[in-house]
Amino acid sequence: MRIAEYALPVAALVALAACSGETGEKNEVDSVATEPTSQDAVADEVVDAEPVQTTLEIIPTRFQGLWDLAEGGGDYTCTTVSDGVMAIEEEAIEFYEARFEPSSIKQISADEITSDGEFFEPGESSKESYRLKLSKDGKRLSLSGNGFEPFEYRYCGKQLKPVTEAFVPQAFHGKWAFSQVENCKITPFRDLIVKDRKVTIGGIEGTVQTMDIVGTDAIKVGYKTTDGRDATMRLQLTPDRKKIGLLEPGATGVTFVKCP
Q: What's the CA gap between 115 and 70, in Å, rounded?
């Protein structure tokens, strides 16, 4: 009877011991499996590491080509008469009446480079640092640097579109009053009105025949008046584009202010 009383407890202890042994082995396996390896540590370091900068000899092909300012060009964007075009070559960046020559180029990623170099414009030069960053689709480019806000460009391709019909750039469009903004309220308005293919001065309207960019924010417009006369005018915007200078052959220059 005593043997019978203790048989079940002993058997149960043996079974528990067996289970305990299996669990211990399993725990050891789990422990080994979950311990980080040296390869995992290296992988984590690679993920967290800063991008490796590569020194380049030339500007990468992805950045090369013709680019124009993404805004403000209107119908003249990516045309032969746009003054916002930037041409990126292997060893230089050409702007309207200016040029940047890199002395060093570093690749930050496939879509981004930085460059230090010399910026040349008529009569002066300066040291500049640029950062160029492409959009994922390669159709947009941001140009930033020391001392100016980023410029956004759109890709034009390898060639600019020819202009077959003359029209005035959008920056010059509007109603311009003689000397002061209060004159905007005078009726009938007989000062200066500029549209894409029409110019009106002194109440006489003309149709644009030719348009030439003659400087930064400066154009020369040839037009034919409604009474059949051929005439020309030169328009020069101030840097803030709130005033415009008008010069006609044989006349003294006149300043107009933009009407709201």
A: 22
